[in-house]
Amino acid sequence: MSGSANRPVGRRTFVLGATAAAGTALTGTAHAAGFGWTDDGSNYVVDTGAQLVFRVSKSTGDLTSLVYRGTEYQGYGGKNSHIESGLGASTVGIRQSGSTILVSVAHGTLKHYYAARSGENNVYLWTDKADASVSATRYIVRVKKGAFLNDEPDSYTYAPTAIEASDVFRKPDGQTRSKHYSRRRVMDYDYIGWSAGGVGLWVVRSNHEKASGGPFYRSLLRHQSADGGGLYEILYYGQNQTEAQRFGLQGPYVIAFTDGGAPSPALYPGTLTTPWADSLGIPGYVPARGRGRVAGVGISGRNTAYPYTVGLANPSAQYWASARASDGWFSITGVLPGTYTLTVFKGELAVYTTSVSVSAGGTTTLNTIAVPASNDPSNASAIWRIGDWNGTPAGFKNAELMTYAHPSDTRAAPWTGNVVIGDGQTAAFPCYLWKDVNSGILVYFKLTAAQAAAAHTLRIGVTTAYANGRPRVTVNDTWTSAIPSPPTQPNTRSLTNGSYRGNNHTFTYSVPASAWKTDAGQYNVLRIDVVSGSGATGFLSAGTAIDAIDLLA
Question: Which terminus, N or C, of the chain has the lesser number of Cβ atoms within 10 Å?
Answer without folding.
Answer: C
